[in-house]
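Annex B. Sample input.
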Amino acid sequence: MANVSTAAGTRSRGMTREEKKVIFASSLGTVFEWYDFYLYGSLAAFIGANFFTQYPEATRNIFTLLAFAAGFLVRPFGALVFGRIGDLVGRKYTFLVTILIMGMSTFLVGLLPGAATIGIAAPIILIVLRMLQGLALGGEYGGAATYVAEHAPDDRRGYYTSWIQTTATLGLFLSLIIILVIQAMMSKEAFAAWGWRIPFLLSFVLLGISVWIRLSLNESPTFQRMKDEGKGSKAPLSEAFGQWKNARIALLALLGLTAGQAVVWYSGQFYALFFLANVLKVDAQSVNIMIAISLALGTSFFVVFGWLSDKIGRKPIIMAGLALAIVTYFPLFKALTWAANPALASAQQNVRATITAAPGDCNFQFKLTGTEKFTSSCDIATDFLAKSSVPYDIVATAAPGTVATVKIGDETVESYDAVAAGADAAAKNAALAKGINIALQDGGYPLVRDPAKVVDAKLDALVAANPKLALDAAAIRAGEKATVPVEQAIKDKLITAEEAAGATEVTVYTVPGAGAFKMVADPAAVNWPMVIAILFVLVIYVTMVYGPIAAILVEMFPTRIRYTGMSLPYHIGNGWFGGLLPATVFAMSAAKGDIYYGLWYPIVVAAMSLVIGMIFVKDTLGTDLHAKD
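Annex B, continued. Sample output.
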């Protein structure tokens, strides 16, 4: 018989050396896999600049959508593929394969030439690698959780498996730390050019360590015992989902547990990051530091709640986490706004925009990838205001065929229809943005303007277009200036080749406060302790719903189909309900003109799981896995 580790099914005792090794090896490998997975999201802007931006918008959108789908929507298929193999062949060898696939895919992203070098092959290869990552992650979590659970004593399974639950957060934490360290070691330009590849290349070292440790492990004792007794499943997929008694368990696991757990998990970690950076306009580096601190403070609570679930049950802790999220999300995110950007919070209270549009001109803006474009005048206006974090009301009283208007205070700005505007769309968009931004700035919104770089031939037009700035063209010309080669000026979009008219050099002035508007959070006004405290509370909710989830999932399914049975509902919940959360929340907020309205999505899903979980899901504390062959 193959070497087998300490068997499950026993009662209270200390953790053996072999069990510590099992937990460490499984957790380390899973941390590494989550690290790989998060790198793509954290470095998406740099990846897009190297692989997608050279192509027309339609092509770029297709590639971005495929990359997104590969990362999240493919995960359940990985659960099916590797779950089946894990229930047929064994836990150890299956999640050894998944880590090899994930590690090599990530390492190759770091080596992959950009589109400028190998053309369209670059994004295609990237999507293939991303798809392999999604498939591998779909098989990794179920294997690691099942493997650890089948080594654990019955009355300490929550504690043992909770170490696996720390891995997603630790993977995110590790990716943030490595990115921050590398960014601190080089200029922004160097990082954008090639430094972003370093975190991907470092994954090869982590892969080697993880594989070396996992090779020394033995097969799960529960699985080996079942296999020796000839009780293994010959068709795990059909047995897990084709028989109602097992399919019902999977359905309850999804709707009563993992869907709610997923939206709380994504809200507390990913959406909180998105909300701070994209809605509240806190600078990206500060956001990463805030999230990293909150994760460092809260991660140990995965283990605390896993341990507690061995005392009072898995279900009470998960349901309590869902209930707390439902009740407190609105006040917590509103408090986060006041702590991170009080000027924005105050302006939102005092100034709302009103969009007057024709009936049917406004649509629900579900942005799956973030690159989709909407062309109606109402959609263009709402998209701009939503991205600027401005609350607004929509009044559909305009005559059919007329363009929407935006009223802010005493100012009214006309939007435009992108299709009707044709070649003038860019100019109309610039006029819309300028008009709205000036009105918002007058209304107290925390807007600043970057310096403007302008060639001498366009300086007088800049002065005339900005009367409120009281610019003096003569004074600017008498001040500092730079002589720039025409090729560089064309590359920087300061002038066109036609406008250059054969010149070899142009004079460029830098005019402070005359460039593009941007909404900001004043660094001096950010209440760091309060922001971190709120993020910490959100992370605690994450640990409550996620810490005991592995234990209850593995205990719901029999050994013969456990890997398959638990993996699919977990990855549908986290890959689909959770993965679609940012796009859904933004679309709902844009439709309502309220930055908090989208929170109804995680609240409703969490409420669904709370009701179904309380009524139909039974607690599994004390389950003997040997008795569930």
